[in-house]
Amino acid sequence: MGPLIPQEIIDPQWNSVIALLIGMAFGYILESSGFSSSRKLAGVFYGYDFVVLKVFFTAAITAALGLYYFDYAGWIDGNLLYINPTYLTGALVGGVVMGIGFVLGGFCPGTSTCAAAIGKIDGWVFWGGMLVGVFIFSEFFPLLQEVYTSNALGPIRVYESLGINASTFIMILIVVALAAFYVASMIQKKIRPKRVEF
Amino acid sequence: MNDRSNKYINPYLGGFLLGLLLLVTFFITGRGLGASGATKSTVVTAVDAVSHSHATKSAYYSKFISDDQHPMNTWLTFEVLGILAGAFLSGALAGRLRFKTEHSPKITSKTRLLAAAGGGILFGFGSQLGRGCTSGAALSGMATLSTAGFVTMLAIFGTGFIVAYFFRKLWI
Known about the structure:
B: 8 helices, 65% helix
C-alpha cells in the first residue's frame, strides 16, 4: 500500500501541501516538548535536563518499530523507502562538527527554527550562522570533496554492519533506550537542587 | 522549577507523537523529516541570484540547480515553513511568544548571540558534510535503521558530551 506518493496513490502535485502540513505537526510537537529553548536542549550535555534524550530516543524507537511492523504486515513497501546512504568519513567528520556546533550554539537546524518561530533572537542568529556555514562549505567544496565522498558504503543498514538481524537489533535498541531513560532519571534527581529555571 | 515549564508536554509523549509523525511521513512520502535541507536551498537560491554563472560552475551548487525548477521549490523548504508555523502555533497557545535572547544568567546576551552564530556556522557546515542534520540524517536514518543514521547520531551526541566541559560556562 504505502508509501503513497512514490507509488502515485497520492498525486505528487500535493507534495508541497503535504510538506507544509507535516512540517506544522513537526514544529508543533518540537515546540510543545520544549525544543525551542536552547537551555533545555543543552541540558542533556550537563545532566540538568534530559528532554532531548527522552524525545529523540522515544521517537526513533517508535518510528523504527512502526516501520518494521508496517513492512512485516505488508502495509508499506520497504524497498521504496529512502535509506540515507552511508558515507562513513563524511558522517563522522560532519557529525563531530555538528556536535561542537550543538554545544556551542544550543540548537540544531529544526530546533532553531522552532525557537525563531516564537521570537527567540538566538534562534534567528543560529539560523543566520547556518546559512554562513553552508556557504563556506559550498565555496570550499573542491577541497572537501574527498572527505565528502570517501568510504561510500551505499544505503546499508546498521544491523547488516553489525552482522545481526533486524529484529535483534531493534530489541537491543529498546533495551539500551530504557536503560538510558533510567540512568537519565537517576542523574537528574542528583542534579535537581541545582536545576536552572527557564 | 516554576510552573511555566510544566506547560511543556511530557517528553515521552512528545517523543511518541514525533515517532508516529515520522512513521506517517515515511508512509506518505517514502522519506523522513528534515531541516538543514532548507538552509541549503536558501544558500543555493541566494548565490544563484547574485551570480548565476558562479552557481552553475560550482561543483556543489550545481547539483541543486535545474532549469525546470526553482532551487527554493523543494519538499524540505515547504516542510521548514511548516515548522515555523507549527512552532508559532504551539508557542502562541502556551503563551510563550515574546522577543528575547535566552541565556544563562552568568553570560550576557551578546555572548549568547556570538555563541549561537558560531554554533550555527558549525552546524551549517557539518550538516552539509554529513549529508543531513539531527532530523534528516540522524533521526530519520535511525527510523530506517540505516548505518548513516546511527553513525551521525553517535558522532553528534558523542562529540557533544566530550566537548561539553569546554563550553560549560555558557550553560551552567
